[in-house]
């Protein structure tokens, strides 16, 4: 009786192990190919071309008690030679200038590019698009004067650049409240927003 049980079991095992699938060792090369393809795909991800910053009084150093807000959007040209921007603000008065500065969050740094102004103080309320324009290497100032635009982009990509908006009511003393922060009323670190093909 045992012999008759062993033969059908052996046939069943032989049937189950015989199929058209490749042997397990054939799976290793295909998974290696998949890993190589994934690595190649990640290496071909385009470098970021879009950047943004949300500007608020809390980001200034020292922080400013203001309801003003702002946003800057920047896009690098395909050849990396021009940085187009649009800066928008709301609930802010007496804007006289706006810049990009070089420094990490929590630190004040030098101006390297103008975004708006300078205009006379005491200009009244501003809501909406404050300025649009293009920054090129020729427009860099301060410590980046004479440098390629790529030096500014390197600072932006590592989080060491910020945009801010300066206000001045034209009446002494300065820093009396919203609409009168000549050192900057709203600020935001510029960060990567994604690639643009």
Helix and strand arrangement:
Elements: H1 2-17, H2 27-43, E1 48-56, E2 69-76, E3 83-93, E4 95-102, E5 111-117, E6 125-135, H3 149-157, E7 161-167, E8 186-189, E9 191-195
Instruction: Tell me the domain tally.
Output: 2
- Content of β-strand: 35-45%
Number of strands: 9
The assigned structural class equals alpha+beta
Question: What would you note in describing this structure?
Answer:
The chain has 197 residues and is an alpha+beta fold. The chain has 3 helices and 9 strands. The chain has helices at 2-17, 27-43, 149-157, and strands at residues 48-56, 69-76, 83-93, 95-102, 111-117, 125-135, 161-167, 186-189, 191-195. Strand 2 and strand 3 (83-93) form a beta hairpin. The chain is globular.
Key features?
five-stranded antiparallel beta sheet; disordered N terminus; 197 residues; Immunoglobulin-like; 2 domains; alpha+beta; four-stranded antiparallel beta sheet
């Amino acid at each position: 009786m045992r012999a008759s049980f062993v033969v059908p079991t052996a046939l069943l095992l032989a049937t189950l192990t015989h199929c058209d699938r490749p042997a397990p060792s054939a799976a290793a090369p295909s998974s290696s190919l998949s890993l190589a393809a994934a690595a190649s795909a990640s290496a071909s991800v385009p470098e970021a071309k879009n950047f943004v910053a949300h500007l608020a009084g809390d980001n200034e150093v020292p922080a400013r008690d203001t309801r003003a807000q702002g946003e800057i959007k920047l896009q690098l040209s395909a050849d990396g030679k021009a940085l187009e921007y649009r800066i928008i603000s709301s609930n802010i008065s007496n804007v006289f200038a706006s810049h990009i500065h070089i420094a990490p969050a929590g630190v004040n740094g030098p101006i390297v590019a103008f975004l708006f102004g300078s205009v006379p103080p005491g200009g009244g309320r501003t809501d909406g698009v404050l300025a649009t324009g293009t920054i090129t290497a020729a427009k860099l100032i301060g410590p980046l004067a004479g440098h390629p635009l790529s030096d500014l982009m390197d600072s932006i990509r590592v989080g060491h650049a910020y945009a801010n908006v300066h206000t001045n009511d034209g009446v002494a003393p300065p820093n009396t409240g919203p609409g009168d922060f000549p050192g900057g009323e709203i600020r935001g670190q510029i960060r990567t927003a994604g690639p643009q093909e």
